[in-house]
Protein 1
Amino acid sequence: MAVREILQIGHPVLASRAEEVAPDAIASPEVQGWVDDLIDTMRHAHGAGIAANQVGIPYRLFTVEVGDNPRYPYKPRIPLTVLINPEIRFLSDRTYDGNEGCLSVPNLRGTVARHLEIGVSGYNREGEPVSFEVRGYSAGTWQHELDHLDGILFPHRVTDPRTFCSWSVFVEYHQPAFAEYVRGLVAEWGA
Ligand code: NI
């Protein structure tokens, strides 16, 4: 287990599509070590999620967890989840405007449209197939992490470049209204 260095936007591994993990390799010490390193690095950086290629592992897996996260005081909680070879399908056309940031894009926020109702599937760290649905604000977190595995970072998806702002500007000028917007989504969707 180790906290790994997080690659920054522009790094070729971040910009490339990650490779599938062979399902019969999930139990291997190498893949289990990747999972442990992702969890350690995500928690150390106070991220809501982290994808393997963000720490230089060019394979398709990510972890997600939202507890009492000081970076995201308005975010609904998500229990620790490890997903290998993840896939997402959209269950409706409804979207919301999420304010996103990324551990690989320091000190930048921006608005990205994300689907509100998704089906998520893949393998857990035990190598078992898993499938579940996510509705509401939390759905964006899964879409953000899957994007990483396809070489896509949130700035690539920002619908209006004028929404880019730094962390301190976001906290001072935009977070109160955004937190209210998220509370409305949570009230509607329960997550
Ligand atoms: Ni990210």
Protein 2
Amino acid sequence: MSETFLYANIIIDIAHEKVDRPFQYKIPPVLREKVAEGKKVYVPFGAGNKIRSGYVVSLTNDNEYAVDKLKEIQSVDENAIGAEEKLMLTAAYMRHRYGGTMIQSLQTVLPIKQKVRQLEKKAIRLIGDEDRVREYIARIQAPRFANRRKILIELLEIDELPVEIATEKLGISKGVLKTLEKDGMIEIRSMRAFRGFSIKTSTAPLKNPLSPQQQAVADELIKKLEEDAPKPSLLHGITGSGKTEVYMEVIAAAVASGKQAIVLIPEIALTFQTLKRFYARFGKRVAIMHSRLSAGERFDQYTLAKEGKVDVMIGPRSALFTPFANLGMIVIDEEHEGSYKSESMPRYHAVEMAEYIAKREGALLLLGSATPSITSYYKAQKGNYDLHKLNNRFGEATLPTAQIIDMRQELKEGNKSVFSRKLKALLTERVLTKRQQAMLFINRRGYAGFVSCRDCGEAVKCPHCEVSLSQHGSGQTGTLVCHYCGYEEEFPRRCPKCSSEKMYGMRAGTEQIAEQLCKLYPSMRVLRMDADTTKKKDDYEEILGSFAAHEADTLVGTQMIVKGHDFPGVTVAGAVMADLSLFSADYRAAERTFNLITQAAGRAGRGEEKGEVVIQTYQPEHYALTFAAKQDYEGFYEEEISYRTLGAYPPVMHLLSLQLFGKNEDEVVAVATALKDELEKSILRPGLYLMGPTPANIKKINDVYRYGIYVKYADLDELICVKDFAEQYFEKKEISSIRLQFDFDPMNGF
Ligand code: ADP
Ligand code: ZN
Ligand code: ZN
């Protein structure tokens, strides 16, 4: 690493300018040891050579312009690091760890200041005294006023609620707000910065007393806050064990000692109920971030954090880059969630980046899950993480009983329905008779149906992508759509191959399940939630809210319904086709299935009545399902880790996928083969596996061909060198017609 360079590419003044273009400078010999990626430097800039600050994004020995045209770096800032420097360091690490350009990494971690003035944020508050509001609520009891009641009831507890939260998180329309304003119940005023809302101190239960087990875990974690370099902690707590209460207790301790906390929650679990719990505890010192914030709004959130105006930042993946001055801890809830991994370059994993940031800042990293990722649990077993457990549900709630139903047996005994006899009996007893609720879960979205010929078997494919088209519509009508590029065509009258007219769609998804359910039980109120019914931003909260209010009996949905939601009325959970996710080809299929089924089972019986879980499958003996039925995480882990060890898969080995993209298939294959040969010559060693090139699972998307080379090795740093080698190879050969990307320990197919 003692290599020194002659030139540095520098981004000027990142807080004020767009970060899309670096400028090259000469590094004077006296500064060569000090200049490094991410360092803050002072340089003469522009016609007047005014001294500006900038950041080094890369080093090189190749000058872009004639040497005498280049200016020199004036000095390197060696003082304590501030917010921007920290973000630069984070970006530099990200680029090193995952590849791609420094600009890509900067754009991932930096808040970009926008020049345009943004719209003012508005907040709602009640007018007059509360009795008047209660009287008004009493007068509007008809079902059609449900939303008016809902918002007023919330406002009795909350001082000021941003309009945005009311519309997006509570599903309240602007029309409802207008009416209430006209009736003199609420007023809508502008507020300074977007900062969530605050609970009325008079009504808020500031803090729940913890159970002895919760307290014990919290105490251990609070002790670690004082350490200079606390080891990361993994909290394995079953669903409903009260992990969130523990997080809040530890965060409160961090805040009390003048530190700040970042809390990552998957976007989909970032519901009003969750946010309210944090506001009840931390009041206005909380800020939230979500993926729909504009660049300007995001910048405002960062500024609040930077200026020390908030102590807790809650949000999805990107909230991790909040530049707090004195970060005390990072919490990652539902740490096993796939959404913590970025699916575009740089493909970073929030848990890995959080490890780096926490270590650098001396902060505590706390990962929590009912079903920890195999990777995190493996690290805990190896002693890289401390392991804490919560193995009781809070209060009286008990874990549900689960049953695996062999659907082959059902068929043999004459039941052709998609619902087993057991599930039907439960729905009749619990839902129709006892008026309780059920959740049916299928891990595939509504229109997954492809269209094929019953005579020759030919499936209709997208002409631009190597995938089958999906039917939108029913019967032999509607359109066929490509979910990858948007291509559409009419439902084909004849098979393109054999001209048969027997073209039919194959549909097995949430929509079909919901239809069947309504046919079977005409009096049942069925709600459906999947990618098709949640296209608008407030749909998701609206469906969940309506189900929570028992406006429906059964909720049918994809995996999104199993994520972090409490429905005390639900006593039946069913996984309709539990093995669908086992069919996917990647090594994480069993882990994903186990997580989904365990989490789905955890939804049932959070109230008084014991829950029942039905797992329908064609592979009843599969260990992912049998352990999920027993809610036996450790049992599953043991089985899974031995399989990963045998197959040399992550986390036992690391896997790097080198991905090549290009319009000309022959060229992609030729370049990939040449790269593989080079790799073979220079990096091959005992214990290193090199595979490919092979076409990706989806070989072509949008007329772009996709090929992969795979490298497996136990040592991650060596794989990072392989990545660097490939990047340099592309640079040296000046290959520009083919894109090269990297995915370390991939979580999704390619
Ligand atoms: P998890 O995140 O582990 O699934 P939660 O923190 O959401 O669990 O807790 C489950 C339920 O139990 C929530 O409704 C929560 O309010 C309640 N709960 C948990 N711990 C306590 C406590 N100490 N006092 C009161 N209620 C609690
Ligand atoms: Zn045919
Ligand atoms: Zn397509």
